[in-house]
Write the structure tokens for this entry.
Amino acid sequence: MSEHESSVESIDRWSWTPLLRHAERSHRRLPGIRKIPLRALGIIGLIAFLNVVVWIAAAIVALIRTSVEHLGPTGLYERVDTDTAIRSLVSTAALAYSLGLRHAFDADHISAIDLMTRRLLATGQKPVTVGTFFSLGHSTIVIITSIVVAATAAAVSSRFDSFSTIGGIIGSSVSAAFLILLGLMNGYILYKLIKQMQKVFMLREGEEDEAWKIEGGGPLFSVLKKMFKIIDRPWKMYPLGILFGLGFDTSSEIALLGISSIEAAKGTSFWVILILPALFTAGMCLLDTIDGALMFSLYIQPAANFLPPKPDETTSEEEIETSAELAQTAANHRDPVAFLYYSIVLTCLTVIVAIVIGVIQLLTMILNVTDAKGKFWDGVQTAGDYYDAIGGGICGCFIIFGGLSVLVYKPWRRWMDRRHGRPGPVLDEESQ
């Protein structure tokens, strides 16, 4: 019996539950970090760890290559010094990784991840892995194509242009239609949120729950809602990422394929070339995961901020997150004005971003297919060339306008309360 008890104690000692509780307590003690949910930090940490693993694998491959053979200018295979080969591989690996990081800032990545994070969060889920699965699906096409290019560099290089054109039409059409439709759907939601805001200020005290009753839309809204219910789990972003990846419409992907083709033509080992798309995937997946996890944190913060503080200071992080995400239930005491205010700000940003990026993608596809000329199309070409800069600008806009909305909320709320003759009790609580 004592042996059984000791075995149970040893199992409990190594159980995950105490570790999670300790992590939650440590997380709540960190002033800045505690605003980011623990599960978001967890997925970011996991992907960062996998990035380190991929780099270690790349280093092992480089060290194992004590001698390599390359195709020389005379057409014969020549042996290359080990240090030279390692330096060449390291520089090529660093380039592939940086291309992945850059590709994660493409505007279609940012828009799709942000929009789907918001949509899944509205269904009561905790979608911290939206960016991860989207990135993995997107990189699947890149990895497969890199393998094919590396295996048959000469044969594929002559046929890749036609495949890239067809894939570009498919991928660009899917991503542009997806972003535009999601933008229109969120535009309708924005309209409903504004109507709700007007309704809240017309309600008498004690009727706040009426503000949470969202009326259904018209036939088009119902069709779109059913269509996008297909993606009702974060892992379903994987097939969507595959469709987005069919485009090969960014310089990062084409550059990676070019590097793989060059290395294959030089006689580099097939298994060594495989490390390049792996590093590309690692870099892209890291930033896409960070984007999705931080967007999840940003979207739940308004809900968590306007909820009143709980009397029990030992409330777990899990309970705090659950309360924030179920803020629309009648059981919670919450301020609908604060929720609607932040929802309108974020929804407005997502609508503008989705439609603008979707239109840019559509115009870029038309430009590539028709080879149109003119100043307008030159501008479209420029926008396509700086796609990563646009994606970075989107992230910056979310941060800047999110911060400004927090600063503007209190004076705006006081002005609206005075205008409608409301006491504004929740604002007084927040000011304490």
Summary: The chain is about 75% helix and 0% strand. The CA atoms of residues 31 and 385 lie 40 Å apart. The two ends are 56 Å apart (CA to CA). The mean pLDDT is 68.
